[in-house]
């Protein structure tokens, strides 16, 4: 589809001029080649005339010098005719030898003319600016009859067939949870391996528990050494960005969202309320109805949940009530059921 047009008159004149120059130079090469062929045939005739003139000069001179036949003026006339034939043949030979050089020069000029013609043709074609893809016009900074300069942005179009969301992640989270292809980067490039594609969910920040759009983890975009974050790209196809019902919104540019990216699987971890784990990474458990403090290892924290990978055993009774300065081995009254072990937990 044509976005806008530029006045083509000057470019059309330059195109016609370049086209005529190419035509003229092609004819010049053809003319030189024809003259070259004719000159080579003519040179043979001139060489023959030169040889005949020499033979005649030698014969007349021999008759005059040995047999005293003829006159000196006749000998001089024969020599003059021979010299003229030699001069003509030499000039023709020189001209014939120059023809290949002239033809090559004409061919070089033709190549330059063809390049100029290509530029003129391209400039004329660019008088109609078309969209390289089917998209949406975002911004127009152009009016009819306005003069514009090369390099000035006059229109902005967006390709909504594939949306891309760039999500910055902590580098340690990327290392711990995202899955990379085992194959090394090609050509020994010092960059991240390809990410294993994963289906993601995109939620509108204003409605976190409502409708979500489906996306796919695509690649690593960049690493920011200042913030030590790694930016990943999530791609969403247009059909997945559309709403399912009239009450829902489509996923569009500028919509503030958050993304859920599935990562590696945690095995044999315990999911606890975040507040049940102290800042020193300890939890309170009940042993024979007595309070015990045990250190634990936190594998991951998500929202108000903590996932413990070490320090607890299946069947331990974890105290989730907030306690203030509890006394070790204090007598407890257990009112909750034991927290069950999460055999596998997706991160």
Q: What do these coordinates show?
A:
This protein is an alpha+beta fold. It has three domains: 2-129, Helix Hairpins (Orthogonal Bundle); 162-260, Elongation Factor Tu (Ef-tu), domain 3 (Beta Barrel); 265-346, conserved putative lor/sdh protein from methanococcus maripaludis s2 fold (Beta Barrel). Helices cover 35% and strands 28% of the residues. It has a five-stranded antiparallel beta sheet with strand order 5-8-7-6-9. Strands 13-14-10-16 form a four-stranded antiparallel beta sheet, with no helix packed on it. Strands 12-11-15 form a three-stranded antiparallel beta sheet, with no helix packed on it. Strand 11 and strand 12 (290-295) form a beta hairpin. The longest helix has 58 residues, at 9-66. The chain is elongated. The two termini are 46 Å apart. The relative contact order is 0.09.
């Amino acid at each position: 589809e044509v976005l806008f047009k530029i006045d083509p008159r000057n470019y059309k004149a330059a195109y016609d001029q370049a086209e005529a120059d190419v035509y003229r130079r092609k004819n010049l090469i053809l003319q030189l080649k024809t003259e070259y062929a004719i000159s080579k045939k003519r040179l043979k005739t001139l060489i023959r005339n030169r040889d005949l003139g020499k033979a005649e000069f030698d014969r007349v001179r021999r008759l005059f010098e040995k047999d005293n036949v003829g006159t000196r003026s006749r000998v001089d006339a024969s020599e003059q005719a021979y010299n003229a034939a030699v001069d003509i043949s030499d000039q023709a030979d020189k001209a014939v030898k120059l023809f290949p050089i002239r033809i090559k020069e004409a061919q070089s000029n033709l190549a330059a003319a063809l390049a100029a013609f290509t530029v003129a043709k391209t400039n004329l074609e660019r008088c109609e600016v078309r969209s390289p893809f089917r998209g949406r016009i975002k911004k127009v900074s152009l009016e009819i009859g306005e003069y514009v300069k090369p390099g000035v942005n006059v229109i902005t179009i967006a390709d909504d067939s594939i949306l891309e969301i760039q999500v910055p992640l902590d580098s340690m989270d990327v290392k711990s949870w995202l899955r990379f292809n085992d194959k090394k980067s090609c050509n020994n490039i010092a960059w991240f391996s390809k990410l294993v594609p994963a289906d993601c969910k995109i939620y509108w920040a204003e409605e976190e528990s409502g409708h979500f759009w489906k996306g796919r983890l695509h690649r690593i975009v960049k690493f920011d050494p200042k913030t030590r974050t790694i930016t990943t790209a999530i791609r969403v196809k247009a059909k997945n960005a559309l709403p399912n019902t009239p009450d829902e919104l489509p996923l569009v540019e500028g919509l503030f969202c958050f993304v859920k990216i599935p990562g590696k699987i945690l095995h044999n971890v315990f999911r606890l309320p975040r507040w049940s784990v102290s800042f020193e990474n300890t939890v309170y458990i009940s042993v024979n109805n007595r309070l015990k403090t045990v250190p634990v290892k936190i594998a991951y924290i998500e929202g108000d949940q903590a996932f413990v990978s070490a320090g607890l055993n299946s069947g331990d009774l974890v105290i989730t009530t907030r306690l203030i300065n509890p006394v070790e081995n204090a007598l407890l009254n257990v009112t909750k059921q034991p927290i069950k072990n999460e055999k596998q937990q997706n991160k």
